Structures are given as C-alpha cells and as structure tokens.
Amino acid sequence: MRLNKYIASAGVCSRRKADELIVNGNVKINGAVVKELGYDVKEGETVSVNGRRIEASAPKVYIALNKPEGYITSMNDEMDRATVAQLVADIPERLFPVGRLDYNTSGLLLMTNDGDLTYTLTHPKHEVYKTYVAKVKGIMSDARIGKLRRGVDIGGFVTSPAKVRVVRQMKTYAVVEIKIHEGKNRQVRKMFAAVGSRVIELKRTAIGDIRLGRLMEGHYRKLTGEEINYLKGL
Ligand code: URA
Ligand 1 centroid to 91 CA: how many Å? Predict the structure, then answer.
C-alpha cells in the first residue's frame, strides 16, 4: 500500500497531510526515515510517524459534531483557544475534522479518522453542497439575492452560482439560507460582504445530505451506516 494511504488509513491524518509528514522526514519505515512519496509499504514492515508506531487498520469512527461559536477547528491551538478536540475527548480514536469552520461559525462539522474519506470530501472536484444559515444585517433585497445566486467576486475569486433563499426578513435583519460547493476561506461571509451585507451569525446546517438536525451545540452523534455509505459514494 502506498505510504500516504497507509498513514491515512491508520487515522493519523489525511493523505495530503501525510505527504507533508513524509517530505518533512517525520515518517520511518523499519526505523529509517523515508522521504519518498511513492513508497510502497510491504507486508511485515513497521511504519512510525513522529516516533509512534502506526497500524493501517484502526477502527473507523465517523461523527457529526455541532460546533459552537468560539471553538477552533483544529486538534490543538498554539494560542490556547478552545478546540473541537475538547468536544470529542471521550472518543479514544484520534479524530480529525473534515474541512473547517471559522472560530465564529457554529454548526455541522464532520470528524473522522478515515483519512481517505477526508481526502475525498475536501477535494474541490467533489462539489459537495454545504448549507449555511446566515443572520444578516439589514434588508436582503432581490438585487442582492440575484448577485449571490449568479456568483460574486470575493477578492480574486468569483464564486460559482449559489442556491439562496430568504427564510425570514425582519425589520433590522434577515435570515438567509445559502448552499455553496466551494470552500474558500470565510467564503460565505465574504460573499455577503461582496453584496454589501454583514453576517451577524453563521451556522452550517448540512453537508450534502448529512443534516445537523436537532443535535445540541457542543454535542456529537455517530453517523449512521447509511450516512457513511452516502459520503463514501460521493
Ligand atoms: N463560510 C464562512 O464564511 N465561514 C465558515 O466557517 C464557513 C463558510
């Protein structure tokens, strides 16, 4: 098995991240550093990452977490902020987030130790629609909605057409549902900013067909077999 795949299937990280570890000399085969990306792991060889022996077949865990605001999507933080790792600390397997949500964004975050699935889901070619509900200051006019639907320039990048609908228009704010399949940094906030609107609150409610549902903030649930198969089939 190719070395990056081996590392990913041991639940250490995604395949892409594994390539970095290999190039940086963090990976040893039978005690010797291997920096060759295409290295093929043979039967009986031992693989270690950062001095820790790994096995390719760790049990796979897939969860949906409702990330609250004020947590970073990372397993540790140099600035000692709260991380999503703390919310899944009772799960013995080492999980990592599939993609990311901003510190100030809440909602659905998938976490797994299945590096192959992470790779698939975070690859741009897979175009999985993600649904967000944004509380936006002011009036969400038809003109603004039209622009968001067609695509807007968020600073050197023009977004693909989005699915947008106003859930509720109040006097001073609107609640807007927006579905996009790209994952540029702070994309939803930037898209609204590009049409002159400011996001006050942002929550992700679905990734493809996987829904947040009634999961409470800070809580997680295991994905069902059906959900896992759906994600693997994307
Ligand atoms: N878009 C954002 O602006 N923030 C997120 O966390 C996700 C998408």
Answer: 26
Contacts of 117 (CB under 8 A, 6+ apart): 62, 98, 231, 232
Q: What is the pLDDT of residue 173?
A: 98
Stated as kind and residue range, the H or E segment containing 200 is: strand 199-207
Question: Do residues 49 and 26 touch, judged by C-beta distance below 8 A?
Answer: yes
Q: Are 149 and 166 in contact (CB under 8 A)?
A: no
The catalytic residues are: 102
Please name the residue whose Cα sits nearest to atom 2 of ligand 1: 186
Q: pLDDT tens digits for 122-176?
A: 887 888 999 999 999 999 999 999 999 999 999 999 999 999 999 999 999 999 9
Distance 203 CA to ligand 1 centre (A): 8
Atom of ligand 1 nearest to the CA of 189: 3
pTM of this prediction exceeds 0.70 = yes
